[in-house]
Amino acid sequence: MGRRVSAARVKAHRCYTVEEAADAVNATPQTIRVWARQGLHVLAECRPILILGCALKAFVDEMKEKRKRPMKAGQFYCMRCKDPRGAAFGMVTFHRGDVSGGEMEAFCEDCEGAVRVKVKEADLPAWSEIYEVDGSDSRDP
Ligand SMILES: [Zn+2]
Question: How far is the CA of 50 from the centre of ligand 1 (A)?
């Protein structure tokens, strides 16, 4: 956990073996094999299998893009883990902004760093089902 996958060191015009690709993006060879099954383009006619740098870059970038989608209820984007994470100890604190919603605050279940996420009023019941929600919820302070 906590690995930072990045395509920054991948050279677009180079060919990588699974091991080299794993090293270049800071993942494990196992992860690269999983990606290959998930759609990472590999030169399967080569033995050992080779991966084009540009294909590897495109796959990692697309994966990161997908992660920018709004979090599901109960998830925070942890800046330290660079991944969606749940709240530690099953506890979150709600800070009301206005009638439309506010911010949920908690600690990352993985690194225990502080995490926050904007939550809409309509999503509050879903959060309450997952966590013990602390904090004042009065609409008329
Ligand atoms: Zn974290």
Answer: 33
**Assigned token pair, 100:** 């439309």
Cα–Cα distance between 134 and 75 in angstroms, integer? 16
CA of 96 to the centre of ligand 1 (A): 23
Residue the block writes with tokens 């602390």? 134
Q: How far is the CA of 51 from the centre of ligand 1 (A)?
A: 31
- The pTM for the full model equals 0.49
User: What residues pack around ion ligand 1 (CB closer than 5 A)?
Assistant: 78, 80-81, 108, 110-111, 113
Question: Ligand 1 centre from 107 Cα, in Å?
Answer: 8
> Tokens for 29?
């060879």
Segments making up each domain of the chain, as ranges? 15-67, 76-134
**Are the beta carbons of 123 and 136 closer than 8 angstroms?**
no
What is the β-pairing status of strands 50-52 and 15-17?
antiparallel
CA dist 45 and 54 (Å) reads 18
Express each pLDDT in 62-101 by its tens digit: 888 776 666 788 999 999 998 899 999 999 999 999 889 9
